[in-house]
Amino acid sequence: MADHGFFTTTAAAPHYLFFGVGMRILLSPAQTGGQFALVEGIMPAYGDGGLHVHHRDDESMTILEGTLEVTIGGETRLLGEGDSYFAPRGVPHRLHNPGPGAMRSLLIATPGEFASFIAEAAVSLNGTPSPDAEIRPSIDDMERIVRLTQEYGIDMLSPPGS
């Protein structure tokens, strides 16, 4: 565990694009002594994370702007600004932005391996002033992402948009 505090700024946070979702890793597991990761996410209208399971991370999120349809296990709810959810490791969940606007959130992953997965699997936007949400993974990228999901204990049960 970290034996001292840590300060950072949004400008210093690594910025990524993963299947159209902008993500900034505000606090990494390395910065929190492996306790958690804090990630800002901006999902465009009609974005979808697919049904998936994290086997080694719990996931909590608070919606800051917009709406998000969240399925955890067999229950689906529409969340808005100020609403939160908790998806424990091992439970299938899906995130879908029904639109019409973007959704912005803060995600906490415990112990934070998900942030390390994003850093390896996503497209880095560091130094890119305005990300192009149309960047899509190539076939080689998809093979690498599938391999990384296995390494990080993530199962894709149905792909994004299905």
Could you say which overall geometry the principal axes of the C-alpha atoms support? Answer: globular
What integer is the average pLDDT?
89
How many E strands? 12
Listing every helix as H and every strand as E from the N terminus to the C terminus, the arrangement reads EEEEEEEEEEHEHE
Number of helices: 2
Are there runs of 5+ residues with pLDDT below 50, and where? Answer: none
Give descriptors for this structure:
162 residues, mainly beta, 14% helix, globular
Written account of the structure:
This protein is mostly beta strands. 14% of the residues lie in helices and 39% in strands. It is built from two helices and twelve strands. It has helices at residues 113-121, 139-151; strands spanning 15-18, 21-27, 37-43, 51-54, 58-65, 68-72, 75-79, 84-87, 93-96, 103-110, 123-124, 154-158. The strands form three sheets. A seven-stranded antiparallel sheet has the order 8-5-10-3-2-1-11, with helices on one face. A three-stranded antiparallel sheet has the order 7-6-9, with no helix packed on it. The protein has a two-stranded antiparallel ribbon with strand order 4-12. Strand 1 and strand 2 form a beta hairpin. The chain is globular, with a radius of gyration of 15 Å.
Summarize the structure.
This protein is 14% helix and 39% strand. A seven-stranded antiparallel sheet has the order 8-5-10-3-2-1-11, covered by helices on one side.
